[in-house]
TrEMBL record:
Entry protein name: Uncharacterized protein YaeQ
Pfam families on file: YaeQ
Classification via Gene3D superfamilies: Restriction endonuclease-like alpha-beta roll domain
Domain of life per record: Bacteria
InterPro entries: Restrct_endonuc-II-like, YaeQ, YaeQ_sf
């Protein structure tokens, strides 16, 4: 018998002063049996850092990347179904990123492994033709502290100011400073 996804609920209160985005979001997150808390919470962090101010151009949703390799971890589709933003968590290969770059207006990757610099140095030169690609590194200690906050039902307060993310729950808080390895040109 196949294992089923575990459902997590999060009420995310966002104050992103860097982008001028504020709001409350009720998230339902399906955690694949092969996914750990760290990766799931990185998806939540990526949502908070990329959610648009309004849904006029479509909303940001969790996709089925672990079930369907043709989908990202998160995506924003406009009202016509056009892919606006492709977001992956982890260390995708250069072929996947170039394919995503051809399909979406923007592509973002959030990597939180201690081997991120090695992964990035191996594919950086292959992505020079991807001007709409952003690569972000989250320090492993910060992502592990983020994972420790995971619960089946969460109240998350997220503040973003001067490039630093402050995330807190009833269990505690963590400060995360994403490091840009590549920004869109």
């Amino acid at each position: 018998m196949a294992l089923k996804a575990t459902i997590f609920k999060a009420n995310l209160q966002l104050s992103d002063m860097d982008r001028g985005v504020y709001g409350e979001h009720a998230l339902t997150i399906a955690r694949h049996p092969s996914e750990n808390d760290e990766r799931m919470m990185l998806r939540v962090l990526a949502f908070a850092l990329n959610v648009p101010a309004d849904d006029h151009k479509g909303k940001l949703d969790f996709a089925k990347s672990l079930w369907d390799t043709d989908e990202p971890d998160l995506w924003q589709l406009d009202l016509t179904g056009q892919l606006l933003h492709w977001i992956d968590v982890g260390q995708p290969d250069d072929r996947r990123l170039m394919k995503a770059h051809g399909r979406a207006d923007r592509v973002s990757v959030y990597s939180a492994n201690s081997s991120t610099p090695i992964w990035w140095s191996g594919i950086e030169s292959k992505l020079t033709r991807a001007p709409r690609l952003a690569i972000w590194q989250i320090e492993a200690e910060q992502s592990q502290a983020l994972a420790a906050l995971a619960e089946r039902s969460m109240q998350l307060q997220v503040s973003v100011q001067d490039g630093t993310v402050y995330l807190s729950t009833e269990k505690g808080s963590v400060e995360i400073t994403p490091k840009a390895l590549k920004l869109p040109s």
